[in-house]
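Morning. Coffee machine broken again, so started the prediction first thing and wrote up yesterday's gels while waiting. Chain of 706 residues, entered below exactly as on the submission form.
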Amino acid sequence: MRCAWLLVIALGCGCTCRPATVTPIELRLRAEPTQLDLGRPWTQTTVTAPLTIINDSRGSATVDVVMDGPVFSAPTTLTLAPGDNAIDVRATSDVAGAKDGVLRLVLEGQTALEVPLAVTFREPPDCGQASECSTLRFDRQTSQCVFEPRTNGVACGLSDRCLSDGRCLNGECVGQPVQCDDDDPCTVDVCETVRGCVALPRICPNPSPCLTGVCSRDGGCGSVPVVDGQRCGNLSATSCTSVEICVNGQCVERDPPDGFLCSVASPCRGEGRCQGEVCVVPPARPLVATWEAGGLLDDGGVGDQWTDVFVGVDGGVVLSSYFGTPPMVQAPTGRRLPSASRRCLAWNDLVVCADTPAQAVTAVSARTGIPAWVYSRVLVDLPSLALPDWETFLARLVVLGPTRLGVLYESRRIEAMRETNCRRFSFVVLDDAGQRVVARLIDDPIFLTCNHPHSYGVASDPRGNLFFAFTPSANVSPALPDPNAAGTVIMSYSPAGVRRWRHFVANMPGGEIAVGRGLITVEAGQSIYDAARGVVVDTFSIPFGEGLIADEWVVAGPKGVDVELRQPGTDGGTVRFGSSAMASSRSGLRGASWNGAPVALRLSEAGGTSLLEAFPLSRFQSGTVQPLWSCEVPDGGAPVSFEVKPNALVIMTDPQPGGAGLCENCDPPWALTHSRFLEVPVPRIEPPHMPWPGPWGGAGHDHQED
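Came back before lunch.
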């Protein structure tokens, strides 16, 4: 509503000497807005707000501007033409608090218009602590906490047991790395920031399928023969005319007798035995689902909107969604949680969900779904995140150990929403009661440039070290080794929040991280990195994708047909998985144990039929390896993801034929769809154990992000 303030003044009234042609005018003034609130600026800054004075008279007039209130100011005179007239009102104060005032327009000693003024000045927030070589200062003009490097040459790294003579240089702590060597050929010596030098057992390579690597202090790595009669050569061969077995450390060919096991049993077929020169194998039976959940209703209606699945440490299945249907623990008939969330993971005997109401981290019992604790104090523990016009939300959860959970937060300006690349990141470490242990900003100089659209990967190793991957977009950072090349920055922090190393990979897209056996792989990359130092130890010929890190193999397994095995740091060469039945695969790989031996599982599609294939991960393989077995799975739509539980798989299928339900920019990609979930018994299948990382985030903890 326009102004209720109005005063009529006759100009030149009572003057007998005025020419008869001059007619007095009435000054009618209004203000918009009728009351001016200058907001909530910081102390020691000047805030300006526009005010419109509307002159409804026929002529112009010059008025005096009088300000009541010491913090306000404006031009002292104003000539008002008929119509709209703009004026800037300013306020500044060194003292916090609410301030009131009045702007008065005065003509010939009489008040023509009054406009109430208000402003609330605030003290800037405490930005908290920065690193040893940088300070945090609040910039009142940009309303951000900015990093400023300490003086070069200041001592640093006193808590870093892997750095000597540390000195600050351009905001970074640099010095001489500590060299670790215990003079034992049977250990691998590494340095950890908190513990210092650590000796890890050396794994000696197996020189052949019939020799096992061993290590002695006197001679270092050597080998001894395996037990005679152990299979060698092509383990998937079903010939009854010859078989390769180990004898005195050599792989030799022998004529198998009748009754020889020529084909191992599979979950859908019995074992095959030799009868003469023929391997007799019983017919296969399709696997049958024990329960189904989610998906569209049979009558075409809309059912539950779950789009993600993981298996807890007790084998219980948890179904969750992207802010859709609330998660269910102990599917298919368990308890539903009180509210929806963004993602959940398993930790100890808990299900921990992120982005529950008020951006909280919520832990519930994995058995009953009853809440155990809630963490929602990040803006208290990190006050520098409580900036005006900024929002802080959860980006990733990662298990650091039985008593430590990592939470990565992302902050961005509210008005820019998802399109902004100006982002800040921080992380909090919680204990098993949901209490904060560590809270800190990630103060790397790369974040001084607005070039990070998303945080991408977060992972941890068994010692609780954290690993992050950040990918710049079009605007590259002067803090990177090559300021003209975009790429991915991989960082590692200790459990106490001390940065261990940073590695830049030019021209590599971002992706999830997997960590296991002291190695790191990044989803979109082709290299394997040393987790202790961040250096490359081997390179694939294809992107890593949803791969696996096994005891002796690293498997690259992007969606599709191509899969590659390598033994990092050895001359073991490259192995490929092949299957004459497979036409395509959208599910990626999962590690598992079958009959106690490590296997890689893959769901394939061939001629409208979905197959579960198990490939051996034996110590010595070459060329193209055929699956140990292949079983048809129930028809519930094309499989897109699955998880392993004891003696069973939980399969998520595509809610629409041809992948129409995929949302490439969603997280997870099947968000807001209606995926169907099936549990299928697979006898003698067991989930992987460390050092397998399994799905991104760690075996037994995180869900699989497509």
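The longest helix spans residues 378-381. Going to sketch it on the whiteboard this afternoon.
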